[in-house]
Amino acid sequence: MESFSSEADYLEVLSKRAELPEGFQVSTGRLTFVPQERPTQEPYRMNLALLLADEPTDCFAGVFTRNAFPGAPVLMARERMRERLLRGILVNNKISNVCTATGVEDAEQLLRKLSPLVGVPSLELLSASTGIIGWSLPVPEMVSALPALVSGLHRGPADDFARAIMTTDSFPKARSVRVGEGTILAIAKGAGMIEPNMATMLVFIMTDVRVSRDDAQAALTDVAGRTFNRISVDSDQSTSDMAVLLSSGRKGSVSSEAFSSALYDVCRQLSEDIIRNGEGTGHVMRVRVSGMLDETVATAAAKAIVNSPLVKTAIYGNDPNVGRIVSSLGDYAGNSGIAVDRKRLSIRLGEWEVFSNGVFHLDRTKEVDLSSYLQDVAMNPRVKGYPQHDRCVTIEVDFGLGQATSEVLGSDLSHEYVQENADYRT
Amino acid sequence: MESFSSEADYLEVLSKRAELPEGFQVSTGRLTFVPQERPTQEPYRMNLALLLADEPTDCFAGVFTRNAFPGAPVLMARERMRERLLRGILVNNKISNVCTATGVEDAEQLLRKLSPLVGVPSLELLSASTGIIGWSLPVPEMVSALPALVSGLHRGPADDFARAIMTTDSFPKARSVRVGEGTILAIAKGAGMIEPNMATMLVFIMTDVRVSRDDAQAALTDVAGRTFNRISVDSDQSTSDMAVLLSSGRKGSVSSEAFSSALYDVCRQLSEDIIRNGEGTGHVMRVRVSGMLDETVATAAAKAIVNSPLVKTAIYGNDPNVGRIVSSLGDYAGNSGIAVDRKRLSIRLGEWEVFSNGVFHLDRTKEVDLSSYLQDVAMNPRVKGYPQHDRCVTIEVDFGLGQATSEVLGSDLSHEYVQENADYRT
Hints:
Two copies of one chain form a homodimer. By secondary structure, chain A is an alpha+beta fold.
């Protein structure tokens, strides 16, 4: 078993090992600019990142934010998902290109300038952006940086790409799994608490195995629903969330089941990395809800717990305030018209049963044990195993009503979260 | 115009002026106890408060939490709302009496012990509790404190009652309005950020004017929907929220319209006091949504803004991050399937239009002005006028789709909130 000095070290190593699948290249670049919208003494810095398949592919898929005011990159990518071929993605951080007067025009202009440099029609290229909402892209400065970006295209490890798309992420996030003769590589910038200023998640998935385009889209939609849509930090869904998948098909076909299963594995690992990312995160909450009539309701109940500010602050303070867990569940059920029965409800925090048969089971000893459990979790920054989750508090809820289950990951609510978000834009 | 040294001073003075309507008495008491559930070096302190009408009244009303796991006092009060007569309410802080094995039994026992001391059948008495969820009431200690509580019953100002039901409230909250020949007095302990450890709101309303019981209930239900249900601090609805109204009828009848209008005035003032309460609250947000197709949706959209952690932290940091306002609205609309049109949306922050015709209108000057506005609001602890709101940031959203409007008040998300909630129970 390998040993790592810290969680950050562990994920750094993972991202370095995550090699590009066959048939892909990436590159990264950097530029400075002065935003039109804000006075500043120092210019802002922006990263660019480029992902390019060697050949155009007709096997690609995407899922996008449900936010009703999506950014220009989301609007454009949704359109391009209807095209026959796709080949690459240009990503920038710092400005998310949302709801400006010239947002789509700006991004299209960038892709048109990139097009001759890579010999790819601009309709086969996507734009992806993350950062401040409402500001305009510095198009001239970005265009000037494109030639150097293109000349840096390379194969091999993708950790530079994973690093370039970061904003306040504390480490790059890339995961790779084997499937058939090839691999699936997924790279993310994270959302919410661990990326609190954005609440934007961008995920780029490359594979060299071949499935049908319909199967790829179906697998991505299904897997995103069971992985990325089951992490929540601050319940804010961004204008810019997207996950895009491209296949080079170089390593032959796999069954849709094998593909879907491998895609689930890699996306689940990546979504756990996202929630674990932030230095400000004192505890990760893993909430398992079972005994519900359907999975949608089970997921919503689990999210009610991880999104409750009162639960989140208690967990942050190592206070096993299980009353707030029951209150958040009751709030959700009562306001959603979900019929629940207190007598059938049971709740475990860590190893300890704290609620069953309609009442709390708390006493002096258990309160002390639970406090110690929360403290131990928070004080445990070591990652020895592979894979292993530290700083993870388990909350298990059984409604005793049916067979459906769901698991959601969330973060506690810390001073660091408030600090990072109180004036992000300076 | 009167002048006050601070907001706290202002509300203290208000609560002292709030006299009991004719036909009511109140009293307060105090006790210490060691909770069964938690080891502690120091005993805990609990306040009792008693409210008693001189005669049983058949004119009363109540609204209660929609939480699916309500506390024993809520379960009991819902039952008693069906009785013919009501006469008084016994309130305690510190422990909310929710989901314990003997919760209803404990509260019934207390009321049975109180019954002979006040000469009132226990079915005409309500119990109300606020505090830690999951712990048991210290019944013997509470029973011992009842005789002194009853002997302290008095008329006149109710500020001692308003103070006794506080938990971490920074000042007592009581408001009185005139209607017909009499008055309506409403007293609250607050919810959410300003009462973050509880997220419980208790409201007690007394009046000496007479309306029919049906009109009283209809007015309370309607008014609560337009006042208490339009403030939100942390989106957590407690297991114990209740608002109860009793009329002594001593000062004759008023029309249901006059009653409803006066009840709205007093409840609106009180709900604003609740949201303004906390020392940890840097800014109050007043969000006005207009141009929606119906009021329910307008209210939900306004709540999406005041409950967004990213909006709340930005406002706390005096950062006019209006992108997060658009994102929170888009998140709500997109996930609720509400059809909106970006081109018709307009948003104002303070005096400044920041979004219209589908795009942001931001520039260097406006960003500076907006930052100054937020800073000025936060730095303004003076209350000179009567009434006046300080520390209040105005956000106006017009969807341009219909005639419905709604206004919601919320709090920012501060370090003090995290601090108060991280280990409330010690």
